[in-house]
Design brief:
The chain is of the alpha+beta class and about 130 residues long. The protein has a single domain (about 5-125), classed as Cytidine Deaminase, domain 2 (3-Layer(aba) Sandwich), CATH 3.40.140.10. The protein contains 4 helices and 5 strands. It has a 5-stranded mixed β-sheet with strand order 2-1-3-4-5. The N and C termini lie far apart (about 35 Å). Tetrahydrodeoxyuridine binds next to helix 2.
Length: about 130
Amino acid sequence: MNTTKTLIDHALSAREKAYAPYSGYKVGAALLTADGKIYEGCNVENAAYGLCMCAERTAVFKAVSAGERDFTAIAVATENGGSPCGSCRQVLREFAPDLTVIITDAAGEHRVTTLAALLPDSFGPEHLPDSE
Ligand code: THU
């Protein structure tokens, strides 16, 4: 099975776990590490609406907290092929400016793009004088 299809399947599966009682908009993400591991994430909403967390950031935070920092691709699954929000783009950019981004709808109809295309001329760690 090819990598794109595998990531889409994981994103669709992660989407089934979404907790989205307020928006009804379920999102799943599957983040691929450079050594082939996949971290899934879903959106997690809250009765205090401002605390809702996106699927992509859930996946990034799970992966980074497990010790991962090197990512090559992410798949994002929604009902209608919605694109990752600006906050998620920036969080992904921190670790993976060269990331491939696969955007799929619930039926698996997808397009492949890049984080650089989604977030051009971006700000990153290298712009801070004393970053690691
Ligand atoms: N959402 C994501 O999970 N990822 C995005 O990139 C866009 C939006 C979620 C947040 C909220 O739970 C729901 O979709 C509607 O905005």
